[in-house]
Design goal:
The structure holds two protein chains of two kinds.
Chain A lengths: L13 E4 L11 E7 L3 E8 L2 E9 L4 H13 L11 E5 L11 E2 L2 H13 L5 E5 L4 E6 L5 E6 L8 H11 L6 H5 L14 H13 L4 H23 L5 E4 L6 H11 L19 H19 L1
Parallel strand pairs in A: 2-5, 5-6, 7-10
Antiparallel strand pairs in A: 1-4, 2-3, 3-4, 7-8, 8-9
Chain B lengths: L14 H29 L7 H7 L5 H11 L4 E4 L6 H6 L3 E4 L5 H7 L9 H11 L4 H5 L2 E5 L3 H10 L4 E5 L8 H22 L5 H24 L8 H10 L5 H20 L11 E6 L9 H7 L6 E6 L18 H14 L13 H13 L4 E7 L3 H16 L4 E6 L6 H20 L1
Parallel strand pairs in B: 1-2, 1-3, 3-4, 5-6, 5-7, 7-8
Helix pairs in contact in B: 5-6, 6-8, 9-14, 10-12, 13-17
The chains are: A alpha/beta, B alpha/beta.
């Protein structure tokens, strides 16, 4: 019983098959492999519909992480890599996806994936990845119109949240709920740099702040940063959030308060629905279908 | 007997440390120069024959350094400059050698941090660092420097470099379109003429100044011929054209002109054969913003032209590129006064540097960009800024509005003098190119 949950930052790796989708060898089966800096995600689509996916932690080696994620997604589907008509690699490690037929940036793939998950009303996508955040404006077909990306810094990203989960000894899955358990929202921490914010947080804890309050102050600061990025790219409704942090209710609800808009609700991924964390991989698989069809015509 | 003057800024780097650092950075730089050229060759497997000359001249520690050294030994003076407002024709007329000394070395910007804070623009920090270890051949060969006080960085840089050699500041008016500004600048030019004459001991007269201006005219003609070739389907990679343009800053002007004309002749034949360097549906990109100095600061054009998808740079609006030679000096009478007036006008009025403002702000820059977009069929603009480059950063908003109006996407790309962010820059650049491709597909 002991020792298992010592790693508070460690989020659940999992894979899922959508029970309502069946495939045959005549179908166009494609895959998207999104090798991010923290998580590697792979998604399988059958005729452009989400069928299965797997989410794993990225290791030190991109090709291996890509393979691991794809194998995980294919688990129990009866499919093998050879059955896939087209594979698109994306994410930070996109050039290191050995089985990919093509590489496309995660910016285009998250745009496409958001369009798939939420439909044509989505105009602004905030993708909060492991080590960067991107605000993307898209059109009703899921095409990128403009985008902004934060600079090379873990502030306001999934990695930063992991650092805080460890520091405060709160399981990463609970971090959003707990950050909301404050009577009054405290002022945001002043440092957005993760290293400095950690020092600042330790000071606040010593001053007698509760874990909840410290977490609220940090989450608030991150949400402000993300909201700024959205404002700079130009907020247009509907707004959605993709990437691992879309599951952090503390972030999502604060962004909504700061910007004064509601985001479109996330699919119920815990109850067997689609997962906004795989938006990039789904977008990549969706591009895979289009590219396969284009190649067939040519 | 030389008196040692107390240095106001620069630390005394012990000779042994200086030599070690210089050797290390020089070795790294030679490798980067070779690597850049290798990649440019790879990008265009049947690269124009005429590029070979520019590949050689691109070695800052090679042929050109030796030529200048030989001239110096025969008694010629070398006059360096940082900003493009330095009236180089006066230098040429006085039988001295003009050479630009801004630094593109990433490694030396770290050394510059010992003298000024990291918030300062890396072009400035890198030039300071290069001076500290005596790395830059052309800066070291310069007997004096002309420093035009354009941005804050350049203004203080001239004081810092003043620790080691004569620096002549030129005070440039910030408001460009007024008669008093022009009069003031004309006086600065006249004063610089006297300064150069005294320093070189050579009189600048009607004949030698006319000759110098004509050398510039011929260079501008060759330059324009090259840019004209970039209007149509791509016949030369952007990096190649950018290197040619920038090499003018340190090359022999007459020879540069001949070699550029030869390149153009070769390219014109390719146009006749419809021998394109990349597929005509490759996204056409323009770069604007902070200057990108050879050799290290070549990462953006490399990422664009080696991207997946690939782009091609067809134009730029940078003082390290097309701004160098775009505008001829418009002389009517060839009297001394008329030539000096024409130079004043050319150096002040034609510039689109964001250090200027006027009744309509820096509208000249907006017009340049809009014209380039239209004539060169630019499909997307990368607005390139290094951190600390305040003027370019601040002018972005206006440029974006102007480009939004004509529905041309612009991407703001901020970076530093470092290789560490290349991976992240690659994602940004490629996402922008994908976006342009998606637009072209429509």
């Amino acid at each position: 019983m002991s020792g298992v949950k010592d790693e508070f930052w460690r989020w659940q790796e999992y894979h899922r098959i959508m029970p309502n989708i069946k495939w045959s060898s005549k179908d166009i089966i494609t895959a998207g492999v999104d090798v991010g800096s923290v998580g590697s995600k792979a998604a399988i689509m059958v005729n452009g519909e989400a069928y299965a996916w797997g989410i794993t932690r990225t290791g030190s080696n991109s090709p291996e992480s890509a393979k691991k994620a794809l194998d995980f997604a294919l688990k129990d589907t009866g499919l093998s890599v050879g059955d896939l008509k087209f594979i698109v690699g994306t994410g930070y490690g996109r050039v290191n996806v050995p089985m990919a037929n093509k590489a496309i940036t995660e910016i285009a793939c998250h745009a496409k994936g958001a369009n798939y998950l939420w439909g044509p009303s989505v105009k602004t996508v905030l993708d909060v990845g492991g080590q960067d955040i991107k605000a993307i404006k898209i059109d009703e077909t899921g095409r990128v119109v403009s985008f902004l990306m934060n600079d090379k810094c873990a502030a306001g990203t999934g990695r930063g949240m992991e650092v805080f989960a460890d520091l405060l000894q709160i399981p990463i899955e609970d971090i959003g709920d707990i950050s909301l358990k404050v009577e009054k929202e405290p002022d945001p921490v002043s440092c957005t740099c993760v290293a400095f914010a950690k020092t600042e947080a330790m000071g606040l804890l010593r001053k007698g702040w509760s874990k909840e309050k410290v977490l609220a102050a940090y989450t608030r600061a991150m949400a402000v940063r993300m909201a700024n990025l959205i404002n700079r790219v130009g907020l247009e409704k509907e707004l959605v959030i993709t990437g691992g942090q879309s599951k952090n209710i503390g972030i999502v609800s604060r962004i909504e308060v700061i910007l004064g808009v509601k985001t479109l609700p996330s699919p119920k991924w815990r109850d067997g629905g689609l997962d906004p964390m795989v938006a990039g991989a789904l977008g990549a698989a969706s591009f895979g279908k289009a590219l396969y069809e284009k190649a067939q015509k040519a | 007997m030389t008196k040692t003057v107390e240095k106001k800024f620069l630390p005394d780097v012990p000779k042994k440390e200086m030599d070690e650092l210089r050797n290390t950075v020089k070795a790294a730089s030679l490798k980067i120069i070779a690597d850049n050229i290798e990649r440019m060759k790879k990008a265009d497997p049947h690269r124009p024959e005429a590029m070979k000359y520019f590949d050689d001249i691109a070695n800052l520690f090679g042929q050109r350094q030796q030529e200048i050294q030989a001239e110096k030994e025969k008694g010629k003076k070398v006059i360096g400059y940082m900003c493009l407002f330095a009236p180089t024709e006066l230098i040429t007329a006085a039988d001295a050698i003009p050479v630009r000394v801004n630094s593109g070395w990433y490694d030396t910007s770290k050394l510059g941090d010992r003298v000024v804070p990291v918030e300062v623009c890396p072009v400035i920090r890198s030039t300071i660092g290069a001076k500290m270890i005596e790395l830059s051949p052309f800066l070291e060969q310069s007997d004096a420097l002309i420093s035009v006080l354009t941005c804050d960085g350049m203004t203080k840089l001239s004081e810092i470099l003043g620790d080691t050699k004569a620096v002549w500041g030129m005070n440039i008016p910030r408001v460009k379109d007024s008669t008093q500004s022009l009069r003031f600048w004309n006086d600065e030019i006249k004063h610089m003429k006297t300064q150069i004459e005294q320093f070189t001991g050579n009189k600048i007269n009607r004949k030698n100044l006319k000759e110098a201006i004509e050398i510039s005219h011929r260079a501008t003609k060759a330059f324009r011929r090259l840019q004209e070739l970039r209007k149509g389907n791509p016949v030369i990679m952007g990096r190649d054209a950018m290197l040619v343009n920038q090499a003018y800053s340190w090359d022999d002007k007459k020879r540069w002109t001949e070699k550029t004309e030869a390149l153009c002749a070769e390219l014109e034949k390719r146009v006749e054969r419809k021998d394109w360097v990349v597929s005509p549906d490759t996204p056409r990109v323009m770069v604007t913003g902070t200057p990108m100095f050879w050799p290290d600061n070549w990462k953006l054009p490399t990422l664009v032209e080696e991207g997946n998808p690939q782009g091609v740079i067809v134009a730029d609006e940078q003082c390290s590129g097309e701004r160098i030679l775009n505008d001829p000096i418009g002389v009517d009478e060839w009297s001394m006064d008329d030539m000096l007036n024409a130079m004043s006008e050319r150096y002040l009025m034609a510039s689109t540097c964001p250090c200027f403002t006027s009744k309509d702000g820096n509208e000249d820059r907006i017009n340049w960009l809009l014209n380039k977009v239209k004539e060169w069929k630019v499909q997307g603009v990368v607005y390139y800024v290094v951190r600390g480059c305040m003027l370019y950063a601040m002018e972005y908003t206006r440029v974006k509005k102007a480009l939004d109006k004509i529905n041309v996407p612009v991407y703001y790309l901020d970076t530093e003098y470092t290789r560490e962010d290349v991976g992240q820059m690659k994602t940004r650049v490629e996402a922008f190119l994908e976006m342009l491709n998606a637009r072209i597909d429509i």
